[in-house]
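Exercise 7.
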Amino acid sequence: MMILIKNDQGPELAPKFCVLGAGHGGMAMAGHLGMMGYQVNLFNRSESRLIPVRLTGGIELSGEVEGFGQVNLATTDIEEAIQDVDILMVVVPANGHAFVAEKVAPHLRDGQVILLNPGRTGGALEFRAVLKKHGCRADVLIGEAQTLLYASRNINPAQVRIFGIKNTIPVAALPGHRTAELVKKLRQVFTQFVPGDNVLKTSLDNIGAIFHPALTVLNAARIESTRGEFQFYMEGVTPSVAHVLEAMDQERIEVAAALGIRAMSAREWLYMAYDAAGKTLFEAMRNNHGYKGINAPSIVDHRYLWEDVAMSLVPIASIGDQFKVKVPTLKSIIHLASLMNQTDYWAVGRTVEKMGLAGLSVAEIKRLALEGDL
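Solution. The predicted structure, written as tokens, is:
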């Protein structure tokens, strides 16, 4: 069982949190924060997941962390949710980042921190653009995590099972020169957060882009015939499936290299995040105890496609096209996912145009990540 870092700063010094999103990750984060003794508000667009939290006063955790986390406020009122909090943890599918940015824009105040958990690819760039579009003048610090801290599932109303907590998660601020400030604030509570190079690095080290879409596409028949009653990572990955993942991973690394970024491989990431080692990606994934017990999605029309394809694969492939990097495997998975869900993921996804990168040189993109403006 994980050792908790309890809040020993006192109520006046301890940061106050709002977790935005009551899905698997948001519920785990809100419960964990409450269990560590921090004041945490929970926002969700719909009431259904909040009612049990209100009735019980918090969230019951099991698995890697066991106990009860008190929630100060569970609400659908975003102004109420973020009022007087220090750190906003955005834990929604990346498709919802623009929505959250639009809703918080009128209510933010100077000094607040916003962290996308995770940003997927281009999340912080999009979030900042939406705030500016809606006239937000507050001096807020925006950052993105390279991945989500938890491997977790909601098992019952107001009950979450945490299968694993990652060891190390790079985070970066936009603008990049404020990353040290961001990490200092976050590490008061979560020592797993470490400085990332910049939001380009955290975005292109998005390993969910490699694992989630391809495993869903390549296991589509099994998902639909069993309603996901098999272990996604333990049984859904075979040596031949892992070969496809490795090809996608190499293409991602080459896109990053075109921007002058050394992206970590999926196998390196598994070792960093979970201490899972192996001579091949297949071996490393099978050796990751944090993946054991996690079932596949029950349907193919799942966030592993509508989020991870649109908000992870499309931006990586779009950057690849801009800099003439060939990404045939990534494009194949995008195409197949679009056919399966009858959705044009290129049309709805984060392209270079939507990230504000179209037509920019490598030097201009790097300047944007470092300074926040050109």
